[in-house]
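[SOLVED] Need 3D model of a two-part complex

Original post:
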Amino acid sequence: MIIEARLLTSNQNVDVLRFELNPPVDVRLTSTDGAKDLQVLFVELLKLLINDQVEISLIENPDYKNQMYFNICTEYILDLNKDLAEAKCEIKELGADFTGELGAATLSELAENGN
Amino acid sequence: MKIDLHCHTKATKKNETRNRNVTTALFKEKIEQAEVGIVGITNHNCLDVEQFNRFVDAVRDSDVMLWPGVELDVIGRNDNRYHMLVIGSPKNIDLISEKLSALLCDKTPSDFSCTFDDVWNEFQNDEVIFIPHCHDKRPYIREDEIDYIHKVTGEDWRFFYEPSSLTTVGIWTNHGWNMLLGSDVQNWAEYEKSRFSTLRLPVSSFEQFCLLAQKNVPVIQTLLSQRDPKEMTVYPHKDVAIEIPIYEDINILFGQKGTGKTEIIKSLKRHYENKGVPYKYYYASEKTATFDKLLDTSDIPRDPSMFGRSTCLDELDYLYGWQDEAPTPLQNYEKWWKTKDNNSRRAKLAIADIRHLPIVSENDYLTAKDDLEIIEKFIASVNDRNLLRYLDHSEASAFIETLRELFINAHAQMVKGYLSATSVRLTNKSLDEIKSIADKKSDTVSKPGTTGLTSFVVKRVSLAKATKTVLENLQPLQKSNRLYLGTLEDKGQLYIETRYRYLTNGSLTDEFDKGITKLKECKKLFDLVPASLLSNNPGEAIADFHKAMEDAEIKGISSFIGITKRVIFGDSNNPYNPSDGEKGILLLEKMINEPADVYLLDEPESGMSNIYIDTVIRTALQDLAKSRKTVIVATHNANIAVRTLPYSSIYREHVNGSVFKTYTGNPFINELTDIEDSHNKKSWTDCSMTTLEGGREAFYSRKSIYEAGTDDYRS
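Solution:
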């Protein structure tokens, strides 16, 4: 699964890196709340990782003009994709250890139990 | 000691069953099988000396005494015919035989009969005893003949009476008459099924038996002393100490209410407890509380291992301390980008820009470590056993070698797992250190080693793992076991069922010691944790659960195991609530069946029917006495105090004010002696009758009423 990400300026005039999830997740680049945004993003990525391989693709936005942020985000997403691959391995390894044949579905299974 | 003083070994009368004829071998076999210790051979109007001597030789090595005798046809007052046994010492068999010949003249056993006077004239100067049939054993002696005999002879000790049943024995014994039951064997094939009397004091000769019948004190003391009497200091009241004899047999404490009998029992209990003597006790006044204690669950450990489960202490600790791994802020990337060109030499330090190594989980290490612990324990237990009982040498060696390899490989796996996980952690830590130093020296900020996603995922997965373990260990599960409690004759066998079950919707308040409301609240909050695993902040649900657990002072999940104990019937799951009397019956049966050296009972008759006391309790106490157990009973019940024929009777008397007296004795000498004044004696019978039967008048009044209903006896 490939998730698209693009840089844009939000309605509040803040630079954001938008991940096209459902619903989209915006990571604010110039706000101290950016760390919180990343945590929300990680949770969503984790949900996807349970059942899928996930890769992020940074799409160039012709309307977005801040080249430095584009460069930074390019590097970030490069690292993020490496981490996504590693994390998938961890889920497979740890998941299989305690769920048997259910493997990595454990997290979603537990979430369902709780509901 | 079983005694059969009415034993036929040959059919002597014309119409007598031939099944009474017995061979020497069968006689020996049957006597030994029935475990009879004394046999009086009493054929009808005949003493066969040759057969008697042959039987004596046959049982010489069997610890059986044979006494010679005869069963005579006697014509009593008013021409009433009855049978009477005459038994003497084997030492005097020739004399007895000679006198019998004189009595029988030339008459055949079928034709012979005589009067009591004839018999008495022949044997009055010899040491023989007389046993007429009585009551319902036909042909029986009439009451006027009994009166006549006792008047003429003046030697009551020489007379025993033989009724047909044990019930009659009980009634007549209570009236002060010596009673004996004999086999009166009809068919030797079934001799062992006969009812026999039991001699409480095991005599070693006919002469000793006669002395016992005469209540000869030195003989009785000698016989009693075989049961290892001990002088015990007991305390009927605070600061009052007295010494009483206690035998390895039945010891009875009786007397009026408020004379300190219960306190004596309690002081004996303390004594045995201090001495470490195994004892059991039963206090009727505490039976409800004692029974309730049997159903108490507070001391029962709530142990998940009985379900193959865990307390989950490690997992709960992990949950309580769990924190999300924070993502690397994008600002760190921005700082790196902005400063990366500040120092040209910094660019050459490539190590400062490399990523963290992929995390290696500690799973392999932890699994191998757990396995290794199990393997070590297994090897230790194998070392304690002798494998050669099950395997030959080569198989045992191969097995040991395989275990050794298993241990070595598991150990290597554990070390490898530890090194992998630790080396990556140390490497990444070193990378961060190098980057930090490089940043300081070059006025730059290194590129972050990771976005933090991997650590974030690993932590969430570990949290899921711990949560799942706790969840699995909290799933409803039930187990129960049954322990035999006792039998209620008219209702069946009862068991105590102990049921263990994890908290469910159907759980009851009494099952738990932490409060079911708190437990339900904790469980409810824990059920929210799995749902939070994929939320932005699982820590909130965990914190709520943690707080509830702390408030309820619950450490592990063992507190979620509910325990119930209840009484049920053996053939169903239906609970049963025994009445107070039934509780006593069950407790008594339980106590008596438990192994101990000493049994202490305080008013065991309380709340129980007389028939139960006589048929069950008395019999059980006598069985314990036969096994040389020390049985000490404080009682107001005659069936226990009298019919058990206790080796020691301790009578407590309230004289006046604060003056109490203690008398000790036994039914065999029929005396109770003041422990402070050996000249002050009381009749054991009188004291028993007064204290236990309501007095002599009441006792004989009952006798008349009972006998009025016995038409057979009156006819």
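Edit: Residues 393-442 of chain B form the longest helix (50 residues).
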